[in-house]
Amino acid sequence: MRIGAISVVMFFLFLIEGTIAQVFASEVWDLPWLIVPRFVLVGVVFIGLYGGRRRGFFFGLCFGLLYDIVYAQVIGVYAFSTALLGYLAGLATRYFHQNWLLVFFTVLLVIFVNELLVYEIYHLFNIVYMSWIHLFTKEIIPTVIVNALYAVLIFRPMSKLLKQSRIEELT
Amino acid sequence: MSSFFGNKRLIAILMGLIVLIVVMGATLKERPFPTWPERLVKDSVSFVQGLFYKPTMLVSGFFQDVRDIYNVYEENKALKAELDKHAKLKGEVEELRRENARLRSMINIKDDKLRGYKWYAADVIARTPDRWNNTLIISKGKNDGIEPDMAVISSQGALIGRIKNVSHFSSQVELLMDIEQANHISAVIQGSQAIYGVIESYDLEKHELIMRKIPKTKDLKIVPGQYVTTSGMGGVMPPGLVIGRVSSVEEGDYGLTQTARITPLANFYQIEQVFVVKRDFVAKPESIEQEKEQRAKKANK
């Protein structure tokens, strides 16, 4: 696995997340729901699916921690959730073959669990509060759908990058 | 499937949870100056990210322009109606200002030190993508004279937040949506009479600020549409920064006070530049305590 190239791509996704969030925020377009870009998490899921659970865990931990330091104020939440979900995504390949449908459903599930987990941890520490109905209909479901579609969109280039590195590893 | 949650994994997850709670507990408190590894990461990421932000804003600016074209006609009509009022107001303000200066000179008040402030312009580098942390990262930090808790206003002049923490070359701005129990804003509703209160929280669902502890007396009448500004009492926020407009008023929690809901005026999205406001005169609680200590020492002698 070309760790270097993949790290660069992941870092790029990380940066884009911070800038694009403001540009395409739904508030700008007067839409009632909120879509959170989770490009890094989708990338971690790809790494977990193609590179195994250990790598998924490792990348998840590093980029989750980076996210916590740069964007969040309390350290630990994203490091925990991203690492855990990267590991779990890595486990999924044991049972299924890699194709875009698997990626689509894994991302769907991972993003859903991630949103819920992050909300629950923040809620546990009394940082945020939101009613369940609003949380699900206005925040989580649009975010999950958009991110899953995004995963399908980048499926080709990402799998190319990750598979290429896998072949190099084997030879 | 039995191996899916084997003993080893379960223990690992539990250990992870323990570490998470310990780390969260340690970092939960207010930290105006982060530790040096954090500062290093923040500064270097903000440097790289700064290169990306401008092009993205250019692209989005184009889309915004296209959208604006549709609204131009309606907006123009409304603005023209507004313009006549504006001319009248301007005359009034000038007159009041002159009168104020004259009255001040009559009773010999020197320039009001509490009102003065200067500002630093800063570029926005990034905005937190998720919902639970509403912060901006801006391109000026400790080396440019930014200090924690300074007020931050948008280029339109409306209050958008305060400085949460500063690194050497960048700092993090906490937006109004993130007001927690710890940092309230002392605000005043502007009307024929100034009505003081405290902005305590933000309703994430309706996008409104909630101002509590407004005294309930007969002659204090709050009308929806009134402007709300900072009061400048305590802390580093100067008076007179516009926050928003009152949207509705209701009874307070125990019936003794009133609660007003305020729609913020600032647009929290697509911000390219912000101004950090530095108040000229800040009364620090520490300095008062020090003075007291010194006095006590003198008295002992």
TrEMBL record, chain A:
InterPro entries assigned to the protein according to its UniProt record, in alphabetical order: Cell_shape_determining_MreD (IPR007227)
Keywords recorded for this protein, A-Z: Cell membrane, Cell shape, Membrane, Transmembrane, Transmembrane helix
Highest taxon of source: Bacteria
Listed transmembrane segments: 31-50, 57-80, 100-119, 140-158
Keyword Cell membrane applies: yes
Record family assignment: Belongs to the MreD family.
NCBIfam families linked: shape_MreD
Name assigned to this protein: Rod shape-determining protein MreD
Organism of this sequence: Aneurinibacillus thermoaerophilus
Phosphoprotein among keywords: no
Membrane topology label: Multi-pass membrane protein
A single GO cellular-component term on record: plasma membrane
GO biological process, one term: regulation of cell shape
Pfam families tied to this protein: MreD (PF04093)
Subcellular compartments: Cell membrane
UniProtKB/TrEMBL annotation, chain B:
GO cellular component, one term: plasma membrane
Keywords: Cell shape, Coiled coil
Keyword Coiled coil: yes
A Pfam family reported for this protein in Swiss-Prot or TrEMBL: MreC
Coiled-coil region list: 79-113
Presence of the UniProt keyword Cytoplasm in the record: no
GO process annotations (BP): regulation of cell shape
Record function comment: Involved in formation and maintenance of cell shape.
Annotated family: Belongs to the MreC family.
NCBIfam families per UniProt: mreC (TIGR00219)
PANTHER family linked: CELL SHAPE-DETERMINING PROTEIN MREC
Protein name, as recorded: Cell shape-determining protein MreC
Gene: mreC
